């Protein structure tokens, strides 16, 4: 039996068109899932939409349609976008799905029966867009600490979840599972900011709007969004129903991937809900940073929003994915600027990767009629050095991916690309070609040179394949590599197995060089379009 891997994205609020920030999480999770498939795991990816709540109700009312009609339209929008982005999810859960609603009601009842949920009255500062109450001390300059917008003082009857009861159990769990949160400093933030000052009980129902899941025993209440939202990770697998094979197979999740703004809900409340249900906790929670713009967060009113479609339609899917993954550091926010995007495209993709492929294919055609020479050993120190670096790259890559340091993992691939480009300068194949008719040694060296180039391009294609699928396929095609064994992760252990392979007659550029000024202007215009 293959090892299993269950990975989830957050379920997104369908409050508007998704920008590249939202797309980032999806691209990351999809890439990790595809990587695990490459590694032989039985992988399952869940994504979806978080459809209830006051804000969604208000948007729908403004548009003069029912919330249900509104969220249906938005779900279709999301599904189309993920299709366009070749996101290979296994299930798309919507919190308005009957399967989800029914189970949330059962879970709510169970918590009431257990005495984890009690009725009380809530007074606090409420942020409508974030659908979160804050205490006065949590506000920043009197505004929402998460989004910076105005908050209003509100009071209402609501049910609370007794978080305090589980506080010590959670701390103990953190202690005993040092790898639970990636990166680890996020856990410390939770302890310092929310747990040490004393965990507040969480309001889990509302009476001021009705677009939500009704509390069965007290129907004027609807379940407040976070209890509704977080449970999607198990309701989608059929938890608590007769049809729970997926749950039995995949729970606990291997990793929930979430942005830093929702870390608190996943690192504190979700583990506590699971403890109250008597279920195992997810193995890991990966908290990623944000993609920022020059002038801060993306927002329509600032005129600095960039949508994935804009990038994909003009520069292609893989260039878009590459940028998002490469430009997001683990320990700080990533920055999107048109200049940076165009630069990465031209330098990393066109020059470094694209030219390497093109030069290799054209030399292989010119010197050996497209037939890749057989491996004939290491002909000199340069070969040896290159080979050693190549054989180590996937090991380093794997380590970084396991730590979810995607940008650093990509850096390993690009180091190999640079090293391989440098190898061409060092071996000067065009000089060897001139000498090869007279000198067997020169011929042998040239054969070795072309072999090394093609072999390294094969390795590079394998490493990028989970994240830049089309480019990898295109590279394999151009190199004439058809056998699946040569595209497998395991084949990275070998260096000498290319045989009877012929590259295509005329190489096709992977990426067309961009005109810098023109593209920067284009992107700036797109960003400020209202
Ligand atoms: N509905 C909740 C999540 C519930 S999960 C049980 C929610 N939705 S959201 O649509 O507001 O955000 C979804 C995800 O998108 C979050 O992980 C958030 O961090 C991420 N991003 C939103 N803007 C982002 C950037 N600019 N950059 C990177 N990720 C960003 O929160």
What's the gist of this structure?
The protein has helices at about 20-40, 55-60, 65-85, 100-115, 165-175, 185-195, 225-230, 230-235, 245-250, 265-275, 310-315, 315-325, 340-370, 380-400, 405-425, 430-435, 440-465, 470-480, 515-530, and strands at about 5-10, 40-50, 90-95, 115-125, 130-135, 150-160, 180, 200-205, 205, 220-225, 255-260, 285-290, 290-295, 335.
Secondary structure layout:
Layout: E1 4-12, H1 20-38, E2 42-49, H2 54-62, H3 67-84, E3 91-94, H4 98-114, E4 117-127, E5 132-134, E6 152-161, H5 167-176, E7 181-182, H6 185-195, E8 202-203, E9 205-206, E10 222-223, H7 225-230, H8 232-235, H9 245-250, E11 255-259, H10 263-277, E12 284-288, E13 291-293, H11 308-315, H12 317-326, E14 334-336, H13 338-368, H14 381-402, H15 406-427, H16 429-435, H17 440-464, H18 469-479, H19 516-528
Parallel strand pairs: 1-2, 1-11, 2-3, 7-12, 11-12, 13-14
Antiparallel strand pairs: 4-5, 4-6, 6-8, 9-10
Helix pairs in contact: 2-3, 6-10, 11-12, 13-15, 13-17, 13-19, 14-15, 14-17, 15-17, 16-17, 17-18
């Amino acid at each position: 039996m293959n090892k299993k891997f269950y990975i989830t994205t957050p379920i997104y609020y369908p409050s508007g068109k998704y920008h590249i920030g939202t797309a980032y999480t999806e691209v990351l999770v999809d890439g990790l899932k595809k990587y695990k498939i490459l590694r032989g795991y039985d992988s399952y990816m869940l994504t979806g939409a978080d459809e209830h709540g006051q804000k969604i109700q208000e948007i729908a009312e403004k548009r003069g349609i029912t919330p249900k009609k509104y969220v249906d339209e938005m779900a279709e929008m999301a599904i189309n976008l993920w299709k366009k982005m070749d996101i290979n999810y296994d299930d798309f859960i919507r919190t308005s799905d009957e399967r989800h609603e029914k189970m949330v009601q059962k879970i709510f009842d169970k918590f009431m029966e257990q005495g984890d949920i009690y009725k009380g009255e809530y007074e606090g500062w409420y942020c409508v867009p974030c659908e979160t109450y804050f205490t006065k001390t949590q506000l920043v300059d009197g505004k929402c600490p998460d989004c910076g917008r105005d908050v209003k003082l509100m009071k209402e009857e609501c049910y609370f979840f007794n978080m305090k009861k589980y506080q010590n159990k959670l701390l103990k769990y953190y202690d005993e599972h040092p790898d639970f949160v990636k990166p680890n400093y996020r856990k410390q933030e939770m302890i310092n900011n929310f747990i040490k000052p004393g965990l507040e009980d969480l309001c889990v129902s509302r009476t001021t709007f009705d677009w939500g899941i009704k509390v069965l025993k007290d129907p004027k209440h609807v379940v407040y969004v976070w209890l509704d939202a977080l449970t999607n990770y198990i309701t989608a697998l059929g938890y608590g129903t007769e049809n729970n094979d997926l749950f039995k197979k995949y729970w606990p999740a291997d990793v929930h991937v979430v942005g830093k703004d929702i870390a608190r809900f996943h690192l504190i409340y979700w583990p506590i809900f699971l403890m109250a249900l008597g279920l195992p906790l997810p193995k890991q929670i990966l908290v990623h940073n944000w993609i920022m713009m020059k002038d801060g967060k993306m927002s329509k009113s600032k005129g600095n929003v960039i949508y994935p479609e804009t990038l994909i339609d003009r520069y292609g899917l893989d260039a878009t994915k590459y940028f998002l993954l490469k430009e997001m550091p683990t320990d700080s926010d990533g920055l999107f600027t048109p200049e940076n995007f165009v630069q990465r495209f031209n330098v990393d993709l066109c020059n470094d990767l694209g030219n390497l492929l093109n030069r290799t294919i054209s030399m292989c055609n010119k010197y050996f009629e497209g037939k890749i020479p057989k491996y004939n050993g290491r002909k000199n120190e340069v070969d040896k050095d290159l080979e050693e670096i190549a054989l180590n790259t996937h090991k380093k890559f794997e380590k970084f991916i396991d730590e979810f340091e995607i940008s650093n993992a990509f850096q390993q691939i690009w180091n190999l690309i640079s090293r391989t480009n440098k190898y061409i300068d060092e071996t000067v194949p065009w000089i060897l070609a001139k000498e090869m008719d007279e000198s067997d040694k020169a011929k042998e060296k040239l054969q070795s040179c072309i072999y090394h180039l093609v072999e390294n391009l094969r390795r590079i294609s394998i490493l990028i394949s989970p994240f830049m699928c089309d480019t990898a396929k295109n590279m394999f095609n151009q190199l004439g590599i058809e056998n699946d064994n040569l595209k497998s992760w395991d084949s990275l252990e070998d260096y000498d197995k290319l045989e009877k392979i012929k590259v295509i007659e005329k190489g096709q550029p992977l990426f067309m060089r961009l005109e810098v000024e023109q593209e920067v202007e284009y992107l700036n215009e797109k960003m400020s379009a209202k």
